[in-house]
Each structure stands twice: as structure tokens, then as C-alpha cells.
TrEMBL record:
Residues 328-410, 439-471 have a biased composition (Low complexity). Residues 411-424 have a biased composition (Pro residues). It comes from Streptomyces olindensis. It holds the Pfam family PASTA. This is PASTA domain-containing protein. CDD domains: PASTA_pknB. PROSITE patterns: PASTA, PROKAR_LIPOPROTEIN.
Length: 471
């Protein structure tokens, strides 16, 4: 039995039954196949899909401003935005409009303006997204794989927002693209050219776009420039075979390199699994600067690995000279995976390098500054009461000071020692006449340590016998 148990554990380990996240179920949505739970009927003429073969890409993460990410056609109205607007604003569809707006985090009165900013395009890659069905008056989300050729509306940052044929809202896909399980059902048969390793996820661009550079799905040598918020009536054509020079990018940030390449009509690829941070510094490109490529070709950029931020020394406070700008601020490194404000020093009440009143602690030997700012002083609390007792005690008091407080009294007690005994001795009789209990116990001690009867704290009085016995 023991051997069988060991064998089962071994087989489970080989089969991948470990601590990794489970597979995420994704529903395949084929081009031209009607949805079973659409917001609006597929035959209403809201949009028309096309036959497009999915194209492989260097990375599964694509940004919304990537040239050639989407396709177009000279045929107008692949998405009828005006008809969708009429549907969503019609009183009879008020329930659907509320559910539709809720899915996109909008108010119903924002729907017309939102639709006016969307742009119709055709997918050129099998694309993962968070789709929504309309069931029982609500928008029900589900992870979907949209086949290349499906018509969608994209927002100002190039992210798919609406599936045209049925009006279903779309949101970004969240999850590990390498841990998906795609199911083909409800008439969505596995299409030719499908490869799970080549699916993409679109991330919104880092800027709002003015126009989107498309590839004509009927003629790959022809490009289409479509202004954002238009449906094809303002398109302009360009030659997609024209060669474009790779700009010089070494030393720029990843975000800047991405924008420069997009402006040149080239796509960006990167030598890492995840999308590098925008502030990461580009060290090299492949091919290098000056190389000429056709529209939409990918340029691989390599970025510097962000250095680890040094931990602040233990016990450092606002007065530490190293707690200023070093290692903080946007100019600390060229490649960071986090926003610089999260790495700033904890002392944010004063500008870096300046000292606040609480940070300018007095030296250990001074008396008055330490008393004026006791909460921020580095000395123990007993130091504040020690100076009065030490200044009035005889020289032998240095032999038995309270623990941990011997250093401060030594620096403050020498000046008053020569002059303090005579005045205080002469004033001793009036003090002994006071009724407090402390005076009743101190008369025998006044001959050897008179000043202690006037001490403010009770702890120094208890040490008086020890000081008088030392001589």
C-alpha cells in the first residue's frame, strides 16, 4: 500500500496537479455565429463580421495603438453606431440600456456621448475579452475568445468595447493567458487556423488616439487611416508596403519608444513575458535604428532590468542625511515597475533635505532643548527630571545616579556645584518648616545633602542617603 501511495503522488506531480492556478474556462465566439443571449437581435443589422485569418504575433499582450492590430474595409457600416444609439435610447429598451451602461460603468445619460467616441474595426487576431450576455434583465459577464474577423467598436485608447453584431459590451480580459481552456459549443466550431498559443489580449494604449492605422482585410498592401469616432466616411488610404525606418530608441523609455514606433507605423515587441513598465529604459532594438520595414512590422526592444530599491537603514529618522532625494523621485532610475511616489521617504511632512522642528534634536549635552522637545528626544524620559537634582547635589552624587542617566548630568552639573551649596544651605530653614511629608523625612539628611529637600521628583530623594554616605 505504501508503494502504491508513493506511485500515486508521483503520477499526480507529473500530471501537473500542483499549487498552480486552475485553468480558466473561456467560451469561443466564432465570426458570423449569432449569440444565444444578445442585447439586441443579431439580424437587426448592427454589424457585419468578415472572414479573416488570425495572424501570429510576437507577444500575447498587444497595446491598443499598435499599427495593424485591427483591420478595416472599404465597405461602409461594418458597425451601425447610430442604430445602436437609437436602440439604447429608446424607452422600450430602458432596462437593457441600464444593464448595458452598468457593465461599462456608465450612466444611461452618458451612452450617446460614449458611442460617439467609439470607432468600428475588424479583429485581425483571435482576441480574449470579457464579454457579456443579457439574461434576466442583467449583463452577465463571461470570458470569451473572439475570432479574428469579428467587428467591434474600440474606444479612444484602442480597446474593444462593444461587439457590433449584437451590441454586447466588452471589457479587458483578466487572467493568465497560458492557463485557459477554450470550449467550442453552441454552433461555435473550432475554426481553421486556431492556435491557443497565438491568442492576444489587448491593453489600452497609454494615450488617447486621434486616428487608428488599419490594414485592409481585402488587400493587405493597402492601409486605412481612420479618425477616432468616425465610421469610415473620413478614411484615408496609404501604401502599406512602403518601407519605414526604425527610429533611434536607445536611452528612451519603453512608453516613449512605443509611441515613436506607432507614429512611424511600426509595432513594438519586447523580450519579456509581461508588458514592461513605461519608465523602463530601452537599451537596444532589433533590428537597429535605420533599418527599413513595411507597415505593421514588429521591432523588438530590450529594456534594462529595474534595480532593487535599497532598504532604509534601521533606526533612521527624519534627521538622517540619507533620507532625502536619493533613490526617490522620477529621476531615480530609468526603469521602474512601480510609480515613484510609492518609493519616497516616509518623512513627507518636510521637503527632502530640510529639517523640521521635530527633527532638529538637541545634542545629548544640552539641557533646555532636550526639555522643550521631550517626545522627539533620543534620551530616556528620566533625563528631563535629572538636571534639577544633579545641579543641587554635592560632587559625590555622581557616584550613584539613576541607571542610564549618568552621561547627561555630568555635562550639566559642574557649573552650579561651587555656588549652589551656600545659597541653598541658607534657605534650608524656611523649607524645613513646610508641612509636606517630604520635609519630615529629610531633616536628618540636610546636614549631608541639603539641596535634596527641594527636589521636584520623588526618585532623586530616595537616592539622597547613598550620596551622603559616599564621602
Amino acid at each position: 500500500m505504501r508503494k502504491i501511495a508513493v506511485l500515486v503522488v508521483f503520477l499526480l506531480a507529473l500530471g501537473g496537479c500542483d499549487a498552480r492556478a486552475p485553468l480558466v474556462e473561456v467560451r469561443a465566439i466564432a465570426a458570423g455565429v449569432p449569440s444565444l443571449a444578445p442585447f439586441f437581435a443579431e439580424d437587426s443589422g448592427l454589424g457585419r463580421d468578415a472572414r479573416v485569418r488570425s495572424r501570429p504575433v510576437p507577444s500575447g499582450l498587444q497595446q491598443g495603438d499598435t499599427p495593424g492590430l485591427y483591420g478595416g474595409t472599404e465597405q461602409p457600416k461594418i458597425c451601425d453606431v447610430e442604430r445602436l444609439k437609437r436602440f439604447l435610447t429608446a424607452p422600450r429598451n430602458a432596462g437593457k440600456a441600464r444593464a448595458w451602461a452598468t457593465a461599462l460603468e456608465l450612466r444611461t445619460d452618458q451612452i450617446p456621448g460614449y458611442l460617439d467616441r467609439l470607432t468600428p474595426v475588424l479583429l485581425r487576431h483571435d482576441t480574449l475579452a470579457l464579454n457579456h450576455d443579457y439574461k434576466k434583465g442583467k449583463a452577465v459577464p463571461f470570458r470569451a475568445l473572439l475570432q479574428a474577423g469579428i467587428a467591434v467598436l474600440v474606444d479612444e485608447k484602442g480597446h474593444p468595447s462593444v461587439k457590433c453584431s449584437c451590441g454586447n459590451p466588452l471589457l479587458p480580459f483578466e487572467g493568465d493567458t497560458g492557463r485557459i481552456s477554450v470550449t467550442f459549443e453552441d454552433g461555435n466550431e473550432k475554426w481553421q487556423g486556431y492556435d491557443r498559443a497565438e491568442v492576444v489580449v489587448v491593453r489600452p494604449a497609454s494615450r488617447e488616439l486621434e486616428r487608428i492605422a488599419l490594414v485592409d482585410v481585402e488587400d493587405a498592401e493597402r492601409g486605412i487611416r481612420r479618425p477616432v469616432g468616425t465610421t469610415g466616411e473620413a478614411d484615408s488610404r496609404f501604401d502599406a508596403t512602403e518601407r519605414r525606418a526604425v527610429p533611434r530608441l536607445a536611452g528612451t523609455t519603453f512608453g516613449e519608444a512605443s509611441r515613436r514606433l506607432a507614429d512611424a507605423g511600426l509595432a513594438i515587441a519586447y523580450g519579456s513575458e509581461g508588458l514592461p513598465p513605461d519608465r523602463a529604459r530601452v537599451t537596444a532594438t532589433e533590428p537597429g535604428a535605420g533599418a527599413e520595414l513595411p507597415f505593421g512590422a514588429y521591432v523588438t526592444v530590450r529594456v534594462a532590468t529595474p534595480p532593487a530599491s535599497p532598504a532604509p537603514p534601521a533606526g533612521s529618522g527624519p534627521t538622517s542625511t540619507g533620507g532625502g532625494p536619493t533613490g526617490a523621485g522620477p529621476t531615480s532610475t530609468g526603469a521602474t515597475s512601480q510609480e515613484p511616489p510609492s518609493q519616497r521617504p516616509r518623512s513627507s511632512t518636510a521637503p527632502p533635505g530640510s529639517e523640521s522642528p521635530s527633527s532638529s534634536a538637541a545634542p545629548p549635552g544640552s539641557g533646555s532643548p532636550a526639555v522643550s522637545t521631550p517626545p522627539r528626544s533620543s534620551a530616556p524620559p528620566t533625563v528631563t527630571s535629572a538636571p534639577p537634582t544633579v545641579t543641587s547635589s554635592p560632587p559625590s552624587a555622581t557616584g550613584t545616579p539613576p541607571k542610564g542617566t549618568s552621561a547627561p548630568p555630568r555635562t550639566t552639573s559642574p557649573p552650579p556645584r561651587p555656588s549652589s551649596p551656600p545659597p541653598q544651605a541658607s534657605s534650608q530653614p524656611p523649607r524645613t518648616t513646610d508641612p509636606p511629608p517630604q520635609t519630615t523625612s529629610t531633616p536628618p539628611q540636610t546636614t549631608s545633602s541639603p539641596p535634596e529637600s527641594g527636589s521636584a521628583g520623588s526618585a532623586p530623594v530616595t537616592t539622597a542617603p547613598a550620596t551622603s554616605a559616599t564621602p
